[in-house]
Write a structure and sequence with these properties.
about 220 residues, Virus Head Decoration Protein, Chain: A, 2 domains, mainly beta, five-stranded antiparallel beta sheet
Amino acid sequence: MTILTAGRVAAAFVLSEAQGMRSRAAEFLGAEQDIKPGQPLARILDSLGVQVTSAAVAGNTGNGVLTLANPAYSRAAKPGAYKAICIAAAANGGRFRIDDPEGVEIGQVNVGAAFNKAVKFTIADGAADFVVGDSFEIVVDLDAGGEAVVAWDPTANDGTEIAACLPLYAEKTAVGERRPIATIARDAEIIADSITWPAGVTAEQKETALQQMALHGLIAR
């Protein structure tokens, strides 16, 4: 006798939602994904629709330049303005602190060295040395489709380790393909036992993901 096993039913993990469809979001599923309903997803920048620009802040004493890498961002980048601020001056050098769009320090870099985190660039020395307070701005701008959701990966360090939402239904994408998908993205109660966790996930990793999603108002019951 053939035994058929039913998979997760679409939206079966949702206990309650906010009024007016406020809990739901229309998003793009990134390429090469095979996801199930209620599987934790991470929200990342996708190459389509992302523009990164940089400029020296008016009033700088140093006249060195900031050159963006190619690509100039990682999947963990956030839309908005990053700041590179000189915190230590030196002849033919110096050191810069990099703050993300929310004002949180994400690292430091010396003049002449490559910064290779959420944004990627190198600050070169100029004829006039930098002084403390000199700064650059790196702006990550999104056009339509600049973000995508992909399977949450608790072992990654590129932004996919941050759980952000849950898909309402199963979907699959091929290489170089993106598809629209509906997610539960905010202000909803989730049935904890109905979340579709990836194979091998630990209890600690689950708890971390639940805490991350709770920041968006997704509460597991």
